[in-house]
Amino acid sequence: MKDQFGREIDYLRISVTDLCNLRCRYCMPMEGIPKREHREILSIEEIEEIGIAAANCGIKKIRVTGGEPLVRRGIIEICARLSKIPGVRELCLTTNGALLSKFAQELRGAGVSRLNISLDTLNAERYREITRVGQLEDVLRGIDAAEAAGFSGIKINTVLIGGGNDGEIQDIAALAEKKDRHVRFLELMPTGECASWDRERFVDCSEVLRVLPGLVLEGIDGVEQRYRMPGWRGSIGLIRPVSAHFCPACNRIRVTSLGMLKPCLHSAEEIPLRGLHGKELEQAIREGIQGKPRRHHLEAGKSGSLREMNEIGG
Ligand code: SAM
Ligand code: SF4
Hints:
By secondary structure, the protein is an alpha/beta fold. The protein is built from nine helices and twelve strands.
């Protein structure tokens, strides 16, 4: 269905937990977040019900995210239920990859069609520094396991961090050289944990084009600029929420793990979905789509959202 500015909204991102097994410095405090009562988090049935209502409102693609979705109990059943919803053509999942070698096969069996794996560095020490507790080896094993399980065209998401991984652009991009992978560089957004970081840490994606001048623009895919390096099997993407204003191409709504519909990632506006069923639930989702703001104002230096990225799911 179209929003008030004529954008076709067909993509729902749903966060299934705000807990995580990593502590990326830009996303989570060291101590993690307070654990909520089980009943506060959307149940498997509620997630399915929201998925069905969203599909009735024209949603064709659902992404399961978090926190870290693979730490959510029942994640395989959640995926299995969402993938069977009539009208949902694509079920995707975003993960930090740490537990992927354990779950890859089951996720495939549950109907997950695509995986996005977050990986900010190929340096084991830096990986530990950024994630505070993670092991690079686990993610690399997870990527191999996912490809062995039959996931093709895996997307690898790298958030650029000035004075951190910005010297690794070439090496990370090369993950797409010989394999059918899509490496995407994202601009760090000044929200939550990193809202007060120094400006130098926020790297413009044009840095990728400076380091890899051979990249050829192939087209625009939603909020992403898609490039190809001649001779490479995979591709490279740039997601520029800060330096380029991509809101005119926005096609998505989000639901937090507490059941709040967010029409825009960077707006404080939320619509509670819990307790709503059937037509009422559909109506609330339609209102959320209708009410999507024209644009965010991140370039002013700060997100308007009241929630952290781990609550919303990126
Ligand atoms: N835990 C999973 C993961 O890391 O892939 C899923 C949730 S995580 C919030 C989703 C994505 O948001 C990750 O790729 C992460 O790097 C990104 N992210 C978190 N905070 C961000 C920020 N301030 N700016 C840009 N991306 C951010
Ligand atoms: Fe966890 Fe993902 Fe946030 Fe890192 S970015 S702390 S892996 S939710």
